[in-house]
Design brief:
homodimer, alpha/beta, five-stranded parallel β-sheet, two-stranded antiparallel sheet
C-alpha cells in the first residue's frame, strides 16, 4: 500500500507522513518544485533524516506564473497558494504509478484546503484515494503530537530554509520587481522539522 | 494521553479507535445509552474482543424523546441522529476527567457530522480536543484499512445486533406506535466488528 505524500519538510506534512506509516502505508515523499530554486533540498534533507523515501516532482513553470499573477491581482497569496496546491495534487495524481496521494492539510487551515466536492472530484478524475491524515485534528492535537515527535525550527517565513510553494512564489515576485512583503503577511511564522525527538 | 472515544462497535468507530492507539493515545471507548435497551452490550462485547477499555455513559431520556419528535416531524432520521450525536459529544466533553474526545465520523458522512464552526465550538466550550481520525479518509481508504484489520458482519439495520443511537431511536418510535420503516431508509446496511483479522 504505497502512498505518494506531498511534502515540504514542515511539521504538518512530516506529522501526516508519520501517521501514514503508523496506519501501515509505505510512504514516498514528494516535493514539488518549479525548477526556479533548489529549495526542495531542505525537504530532502529532512526526509533523509526521518528515514523516508523522497523524490522531487517538477511542475510546469506556467503554474507558478499564473499563481504570481493571482497574488499580484489579489494583493494577498491565498488564492495563489490554493491554485498551486490543486495543480500539484492533480499532477501527482495523474502519474501512472500513483494510486494514493496524501498531504498535510489540516482542519483549521484556510489555504491550501480542498472542500469535499473538490476532494471527491480529485479522487474520481484520477482514480486515486486522497488521504488527509490531519484533517480531523485540531491545533491542540497537532501540537501535542508534533511536540512529542519532532525537533522543530520555527522562523519567520522569509528566513526559513524550507521547501514549500511559498519560497518559489516569493522569488518569482521579487524577479518581477514586487516586494513579497506587500503581498504576504508581515509576520508569518513557519516550521521546519530537524529530526525525531522520539520515534514511536 | 487519554482519549474518550464514542463507540458503537461498528467498523468506523473501531477503525478510528485503532488509529488513536497507533498515534500513541490511550483509548477509553464510550458507548452512549438512554437506558431503554441494553444494546450497549454489543459494543462492550466487541470492545473486549479488540482489547479496549469500555464504559457506558447514560444520556437523559429527554434527548431521545426530542430526537424521536424530530424524526416523526421530518419523516426521516437525519436531524434526529445529528441532534443525538451533538448532545452525546457535549455530554462526554463536559465530564471533568475528559480532555480529549473522539468519534468515527467520516468525510463522506452526511450525518452525524460536525461542521468546522461546531467542532471548534465544542472544543472551546468544554476545553477539550476533538479528534476525528477518519475525517480525512475517503471510502476507498476506509475500506482497505477495515478489510485488512477486522472481521466484519454486515446486515440490514433492523436485524443487526449493534449499539448505535439508531437502535434505541427505532425502539422508541415503535413504542409510540410508529413503524421505523416509515422513517428510516428501507435497505440500510450497517456493520458490526466481530474481531481482529490482523493486528498491526
Amino acid at each position: 500500500m504505497l502512498v505518494h505524500h506531498l511534502y515540504s519538510g514542515g511539521k504538518d506534512s512530516s506529522l501526516a507522513a508519520w501517521i501514514l506509516t503508523r496506519l501501515g502505508y509505505e510512504v514516498e515523499l514528494v516535493t514539488i518544485s518549479f525548477g526556479l530554486l533548489d529549495n526542495w533540498r531542505y525537504a530532502r534533507e529532512t526526509a533523509e533524516t526521518l528515514g523516508f523515501r523522497h523524490r522531487v516532482v517538477y511542475l510546469p513553470g506556467e503554474i507558478l506564473e499564473n499563481a504570481a499573477k493571482m497574488a499580484i491581482k489579489d494583493g494577498h497569496p491565498n488564492n495563489a497558494i490554493q491554485f498551486i496546491h490543486e495543480r500539484a495534487l492533480e499532477y501527482v495524481a495523474s502519474m501512472p504509478e500513483v494510486e494514493r496521494i496524501s498531504d498535510g492539510t489540516r482542519r483549521d487551515d484556510r489555504v491550501p484546503l480542498l472542500d469535499l466536492p473538490k476532494a471527491r472530484s480529485l479522487e474520481d478524475r484520477f482514480g486515486v484515494a486522497y488521504i488527509r491524515p490531519l484533517l480531523g485534528l485540531g491545533y491542540k492535537t497537532i501540537r501535542e503530537l508534533t511536540e512529542r515527535l519532532f525537533v522543530v525550527e520555527i522562523r519567520e517565513s522569509e528566513q526559513l530554509k524550507k521547501a514549500d510553494y511559498e519560497v518559489e512564489l516569493r522569488h518569482l515576485l521579487r524577479e518581477k520587481g514586487i516586494d513579497p512583503l506587500t503581498i504576504f503577511p508581515k509576520s508569518h511564522y513557519q516550521s521546519r522539522v530537524l529530526g525525531w525527538r522520539e520515534q514511536l
